[in-house]
Amino acid sequence: MQGFLKAVFKVDVGFQVISMVALVVIILVTLLDVIMRNMGHPIVGSMEIVSFLGAVVIGFAIPYASWKRVHVYVDVVLEKLKPSHRKVFDSATRCLGIALFVFIGIYFIVYGLDLRRTHEVSPSFKLPYYPIPWGLAVASFLQSITLVADLVKITRQGQDT
Q1: CA-to-CA distance for 85 and 72, rounded, in angstroms?
Q2: DSSP state of 42
Q3: Residue partners of 130: CB distance under 8 A and separation at least 6
Q4: Is the pLDDT of residue 80 over 90?
Q5: Cα 152 from Cα 158, distance rounded (Å)
Q6: Is the pTM of this model over 0.85?
Q7: What are the residues whose beta carbons fall under 8 Å from the beta carbon of 65, sequence distance 6 or more?
Q8: Closest CA to 124 of 42, 63, 24, 65
Q9: Distinct helix (H) and strand (E) counts, the chain
């Protein structure tokens, strides 16, 4: 089981690195666009680049944020529960999260297939749109796997591992 947790963590870190690189590219493109725009030569398609990479930044950062539990977490009610009840509640919410992200991933695939079928492309660079929802589908499935790993960690709490 430890190997599974390590593998999920490594993939989460890889997606986080992709997310960070995309964010740096967004910053550089925006900075260059502002500078070039002031000189009368804006970067053509900068909004497309920023939009595509924005989806990558958000989607690919979610699994690692979930692993590290750095997302917004309101636990005012949970603090009042017994540890055993808290464990049940945490397990139930992880199960719901797994189902939700599998559902989201499936519909990203369906949406990507629809975009591919209709040959939707971006206005400036004529890049196809369908890889973006497919990438987000992979990130959604990874989030589901991350929640499974989190569920494993929750059920193993209190045991010598």
Answers
A1: 21
A2: P
A3: 112, 113, 115, 116, 120
A4: no
A5: 12
A6: yes
A7: 71
A8: 42
A9: 4, 0
pLDDT (average), residues 62-77: 83
At residue 81, the pLDDT reads: 81
Residue 148 tokens read as 């499974």
The length of the chain, given as a count of residues = 161
- Mean pLDDT of all residues in 109-120: 96
User: What's the rounded Cα separation, in Å, for the pair 154 and 161?
Assistant: 12
Helix (H, G, I), strand (E, B) or coil at 116: helix
CA distance 3 to 154: 16
Produce one character per residue of 11-42: b if its CB has 16 or more CB atoms within 10 Å, e if not.
Answer: bbeebbebbeebbebbeebeeebeeeeeeeee
Q: Tokens 């990507």 correspond to what residue?
A: 112
pLDDT confidence band for 161 (50 / 70 / 90): very low
Looking up tokens 């997310």 gives 19
